[in-house]
Amino acid sequence: MKLMAVLVEDVEIDQSSDADDDILMLKHLQSLGYEYKLISWHSPPASLDHFDLCLVRIAYGYHTSPDAFLQLIKRFNEAGVTVLNPPKMINWNYHKKYLLELRNQGFLLPSTYLIEQTASAPKLSSIMAETDIYSAVIKPAISASATSTFRITLPVSSDMQKNFEEILEKHDVLVQEFMTEIAQGEISLIYLSGQYKYAVKKIPKTDGGWLVQSEHGGRTIEYQAEQNEIKVGDKIMYWLEQKFGKFPLYARIDGIKTENGFSLMEVELIEPGLFFSKNAAKIALFGHALTKYNEA
Questions:
Q1: 185 and 265 both lie in a single domain
Q2: What is the pLDDT, as a whole number, of residue 38?
């Protein structure tokens, strides 16, 4: 039986629940012969080398202290523990500048610009005028669940400029063209070991909403991905394999339909929601992928 460290934000979670996808996933892994121990990435133990594996998939909140989180990943790796997803992928994925690399590789994305952390912020109105963007989404380059994310439209109000300056004092920031197609929903393609498995569509609330996360009123429905969408996901998986020498164990590719094709919004390799929806078959797919990944 292999001992697996499961990184979490809070170890005091109810492990008896059958209503939580993460707990159901862990119970299934236990049935496959994986003994697991919840480890807070905030306060890990001094010794890590007794673990065989480290699963990062539910390490929620890592973006609040990325340096400490990445240092822990490094410690696991140096202790000879197999980290999933692999550390090189985590180090690449935690900062959203990876989107610029994907754009440079020819993948379709909204116009996206990185503004590095500074105490002397540029004017948003100037950035938007220079880039020919009328409406934009502002987000920290290290974030999750749309934290500190807001939308602006020309002319930029003084309050929005102030919000931007406050974020930029602490973080790098992305300025990304707002895509009106988000009203039709964001498509999430779920990949395990580089293979497409299933998809969902996340839909914002109807009264002018544009954020698709459940925390912001969004809802999720089952979705049958189209071949052109899967083709984009497959190309990203192939590119990741070429870059890192292997596929990620798990990945979620988010995008939207546009007149120019499937436009990439995010590639999530750290702690993506995989939308098991308490479906035993989907959870079993994850368990099977984990077992095969370790045997490879």
A1: yes
A2: 95
Total domain count for the chain? 3
Give pLDDT, residue 12: 78
Separation between Cα atoms, residue 287 and residue 276, nearest integer Å = 12
User: Helices 158-168 & 124-131, crossing angle to 10 degrees?
Assistant: 90
> Which tens digits make up the pLDDT trace of 153-211?
888 899 989 989 988 988 899 999 999 898 899 999 999 999 999 999 998 866 656 56
Give yes or no: residues 190 and 156 share one domain: no
Is residue 102 domain-shared with residue 212, that is, in the same domain?
yes
Calculate ∠ Cα 258-259-262, nearest 5°. Answer: 40
d(CA 110, CA 95): 17
Domain carrying residue 60:
2-84
Give the amino acid at 50: H
Same domain, residue pair 165 and 222: no
Q: Average pLDDT for residues 79-85, to the nearest whole number? A: 98
C-alpha distance across the termini of the chain, in Å? 18
Q: CA neighbours within 13 Å on the CB side: how many for 218?
A: 22
92: helix, coil or strand? helix
How far is residue 202's CA from residue 184's CA, in Å, rounded to a whole number?
9
Do residues 197 and 285 make contact, with C-beta atoms less than 8 angstroms apart?
A: yes
Classify residue 169: in a domain, yes or no: yes
pLDDT of residue 32: 96
In terms of pTM, does the model score above 0.90?
yes
Q: How far apart are CA 246 and CA 290, in angstroms?
A: 14
Of 162, 178, 194, the position where a domain reaches its end is 178
Say yes or no: 243 and 102 in one domain.
Answer: yes
